[in-house]
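Morning!

This is the sequence you dropped in the shared folder:
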Amino acid sequence: MKLATILSHLGACTDARVWAKTQPDLETAWRECKRSDWMLWLLARTTLNQDDPRLRLMACDFAEAALIYVPAGEDRPRQAIEVARRFAAGDATREELSAAWAAAGDAAWAARSAAGGAAGGAAWAAWAAAGDAAGDAAWAAAGDAARDAAGGAAWAAWAAAWAAARAAARDAAGGAAGGAQSDIIRRYFPECPEIKPELLHKAV
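The structure's back. Tokens below.
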């Protein structure tokens, strides 16, 4: 069965289905894709476990790449990422994570009010990496598929990618953001996701 057909039945967007027609198979598409949002969507639709620590670590990488946009002296986003990494490794409590999430949120609002732009996007990315509040209305549009299919950690990865990309897009080199994020995803998920039989039968 053709990749574009499978993606169509899974509910992929038109642009993704059109691009898929240029790829011979899913494995090649996974290696070549430079759209992190498409890759996260496919992961969420297929094999992700919401407790997979790779999701939070991946969100941390997205957010960390955007720290260059955070004003000097504002350390809360970096600290939130560090706590999120420790939490993923089992070395931080949920209370510590919640405190870091709240502090990163304060930094994001401050950046939005003062510096705005890329600084705000970077701080929001750190906030998302530390968060589990998948139902927060402010991020509802950032990743419905990730949130619904794989839970809070996948949503956090999606939101962090989205916020970090927004930050990078305001820089002259922002066009490379999508490819860099795709490489981060492949670092944690080098193999293309498995499309399970119960999903395949829908594409018949």
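Headline: The CA atoms of residues 23 and 29 lie 6 Å apart.

More detail when I'm at my desk.
O.
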